[in-house]
Design goal:
Elements (H helix, E strand, L loop, with lengths): L7 E4 L9 E6 L6 E3 L5 H9 L12 H22 L5 H25 L10 H30 L2 H30 L16 H6 L9
Antiparallel strand pairs: 1-2, 2-3
Helix pairs in contact: 2-3, 2-5, 3-4, 4-5
Protein name: MARVEL domain-containing protein
């Protein structure tokens, strides 16, 4: 025999540092007081906020603009370089560099716009620094190669490719300098998106709550 009057349910407002729901009472034999599991909605909210979710507003930020310029300029430059079917070994290095730059910029654009940075524990800024640093170096060399090729062979498509290589180089250089500056100011940050907040209303947290089963 046990006393049901001792059973109670506690609930706190989600706005007050966490929502906790717990059941208390005597066990079925009535000889032991038990306290059921607690569910902390603050931790649940933190987990919920880190689920991948497409964020359109990231695409209009300054960093996203740089990534878009990097990708588009690299792809256009690649097309103009490949347009001329001339055997010159350095141009193949340029094509590989531009394709890699396009792929890397597109990858990071998707990672940030899809909120994947908050669903993983990787130090994304470290990988970004490596990628942008290599891109600055390789695209700088590619711009010089295409400048030399355009002057020597006078192909109009290669001349245009130099312009887009320069756009890509400037975008990568600006991105790299900005990342270095941010990393020096905030050495512990895991990604450059640390200051942006994606709001999640307490009502949606409450509606997604996982109920605690009644042991009786």
């Amino acid at each position: 025999m046990y006393d049901d009057s001792c059973c109670e349910e506690d609930e706190k407002n989600p706005n007050e540092g966490g929502y906790i729901k717990a059941n208390h009472g005597w066990d079925h034999d009535g000889d032991e007081w038990i306290e059921e599991e607690e569910f902390d909605y603050q931790n649940y909210k933190k987990f919920y906020r880190e689920l991948p979710k497409f964020d359109f507003w990231y695409l209009i930020t300054g960093r996203a603009f740089l990534r878009i310029v990097q990708g588009v300029s690299s792809l256009i430059a690649f097309c103009f370089v490949a347009w001329v079917n001339a055997y010159f070994l350095p141009t193949y290095v340029v094509q590989a560099t531009l394709l890699s730059a396009f792929g890397g910029s597109s990858f990071f654009l998707v990672v940030y716009s899809a909120n994947i940075i908050r669903s993983t524990k990787l130090r994304w800024i470290f990988h970004e620094l490596i990628f942008t640093g290599l891109a600055v170096y390789m695209i700088g060399i590619s711009t010089l190669i295409m400048g030399y090729s355009a002057i020597r062979w006078q192909y109009s498509s290669w001349i245009i490719s130099v312009i887009f290589c320069a756009f890509s180089f400037i975008a990568f250089l600006s991105d790299f300098i900005s990342l270095i500056s941010m990393h020096r100011k905030q050495p512990d940050c895991r990604h450059h998106d640390a200051k942006r907040i994606r709001d999640l209303s307490p009502s949606s947290i409450h509606s997604e709550s996982i109920p605690v089963e009644d042991p009786y």
